[in-house]
Amino acid sequence: MRKGTTYMKRLLAIPVFVAGALALAAFAFANPGHGNKQPHPHKATVVIHTTDGSCSGGTWADDTITRTVKVHKNRDGSLRIREEDHGTFVTNAGGVLASPGNCADNTSSHGHTVLLGVTGTLKGYIKGTVTGGTFNPTGTCASPCHQSDFIQAFFGPTATFSCLSNSPKCKFKYGYHAKQNQNLMFRHWLDKGTGAGTFLKEHFFGDIASA
Length: 211
Known about the structure:
Blueprint: H1 7-12, E1 42-53, E2 59-73, E3 79-91, E4 119-131, H2 147-155, E5 160-161, E6 167-178, E7 186-196, E8 201-209
Antiparallel strand pairs: 1-2, 2-3, 3-4, 4-5, 4-6, 6-7, 7-8
């Protein structure tokens, strides 16, 4: 995931947040408020299937993810989105494509390739701010639904999402852990960062690698 061009691009520009074929018309946001007290965030949970990009730009795994999207109103009137993911991955590189952490931007110890069929778990989040829009929890977004389509469908055509613009108001962190006894040199990979566009600062640690 070369800085500024791969992981953030995979999260935000590819259909349905990552790369799945989910119809967001199925999103059903809920808000169990408590009288005059501050309500809980609107939230919806979906299961998606997606490919996963390496730090060098290739595809190294297939993911099955349960994603919870939370929408919360800030005091200044802006809206905060937090997407929380947890799930599993299985590698599809077969030793041909690079391991996820094999790139110059990863200054920690890492490998080079990963074999077919390596399995493990993943967990992470991405959060940002929506301005210039009004949240409509009953909006719909037909598949394929890009992140920009989702923002327009649920926040209106004038809304702007900080993680889709040049903004420091974006943060993400994803950790991957391969299961034991799979003949791996490295079993843990972390991708985290802040900002988007020209403000993006992304860091990689470790790897999921067979060699």
